[in-house]
Amino acid sequence: MRSTPRKSGFRAWTLLAGVALASQVAGCEDRRTDPAPADLADTLLDDSLDFRDQVDPHAPYAGEWAIRAADCDEEKKIWTIEPRRMAIVPSMRFCLFEKVYVNTAEQEGETVWSAASQCLAEGRESQDFVFFRLKENLRDMRVTFNDSRSVALVRCLRS
C-alpha cells in the first residue's frame, strides 16, 4: 500500500516541476545581441586558418604574434589570436572572448580593442579583461591583461 502514495506523490512532484519549468521558459526572452550558444560554438570550433593569411578589418588584432620576429619560426613562442579566442603557447594560457569592444578614439597612432574574457592557465580559470593596442601599421601590438604590465608583440608574417 505504501507504493501507491509514493507513485502518486512522485507523479504530482513531476507534474509540479514540469509546470514550474514551463512557466519559466514561457516568460523568458532572449535579449542578447551576441551569437546564440549554438552559433558561438560553431564560431569557436571553426578551424579555418584564413585569418592568418590576411588582416581582418573587423578584428585586426587576430593573427599569429610573437615577442620578436625571430620567434615566429618557433611554434612554442607564438601567440595565436583569433577574433573570439586566443592561445598563448609560451605561458599555456587560453582565453575565450565573451565580448569585444573597440575604442574608436585614436591615441598615438593606435586603436584599442578590449575583450571581456574567460581564461584558463595553470589549471585555474579566471575572468580577465584583455586590451589589444594595435599600431597603425597593423604589425605591432601591445597586449595587457587586467591593466597589468603590457607585452609588446610583432605580427608573424607568412613568407
Describe the overall structure.
The chain is an alpha+beta fold. The protein has 2 domains: 1-31; 37-155, no CATH class. Helix content is 21%, strand content 38%. The protein has 2 helices and 8 strands. Strands 1-2-3-4-5-6-7-8 form an 8-stranded antiparallel beta barrel. The radius of gyration is 23 Å and the shape is globular. The N and C termini lie far apart (81 Å). Mean pLDDT is 74; it is low at 1-37.
- Mind telling me the C-alpha Rg? 23 Å
**For the residues shown, what is the average pLDDT?**
74
Spans where pLDDT lies below 50 across 5 or more residues: 1-37
Task: Give the spatial strand order of the biggest sheet.
Answer: 1-2-3-4-5-6-7-8
Order of helices and strands: HHEEEEEEEE
Q: State the helix count.
A: 2
Task: Kindly estimate the percentage of residues that lie in beta strands according to DSSP.
Answer: 35-45%
Structural class assignment: alpha+beta
**Domain tally:** 2
Summarize the structure.
The protein has 2 helices and 8 strands. The chain is an alpha+beta fold and 159 residues long. It folds into 2 domains: 31 residues; 119 residues, no CATH class.
